[in-house]
Design goal:
The protein is mainly α. Helix content is about 85%, strand content about 0%. The chain folds into two domains: about 45 residues; about 170 residues, Up-down Bundle (Four Helix Bundle (Hemerythrin (Met), subunit A)), CATH 1.20.120.
Amino acid sequence: MENTQQPKQKEKVREKVKRARENVKRVSKEVTQGVKKEIKEDFFNVPNTLTLSRLFFAFIAVYLLFSGYSRILVAVIFSIAAITDFFDGYLARKLKQTTSIGARLDQVIDRIFTAIVVFALLFYFIKFNMNGIMLLALVSSREIIGLPGFIIRIIKNKDAYKVKYVGKITTLVQSFALAFIIAGFSFSVYFAIATCIVGILSGFDYLKDSLN
């Protein structure tokens, strides 16, 4: 009697183990799909797409600059790219698509965007206009001072820096300054000086926040 019951009990145990494995696989698959979907939804949204478009416009502006197109046209393209920096944050809040990855992406793209434009103008002015190099140094004060902090944040994997009022002012004035420098307007020097002043304050604030 015992011999006939043991195979049945073993069979029941095997079935339970089999069902448990199937349940684990099913749950794991659902969790994996859910995580992938969440990551996709968090990243590929309207604000992040707009943020990434900033790089696209930056490369177009650089291409036009070195292809001999009007500097006014290049300044317009740059301005369009700079405007996206306002609208991506606005749409993120409006559409309730604010995410930590989006905030970090915005700050990284801002640094890359500024670096592309500044270095492109640096090479351009070395060849055509040496006075422009001084203006570029002035408008890059925040990036120069804040660079160590940016590297520290990446190494420490810190949360995205919460942009403060001085940072927003710096970005706004810097955008005007770079647009006027690209266009070749003589009064751009005043905007460059203003950017330098607020940029120093913003750069040190960013560096301080990164070190804490």
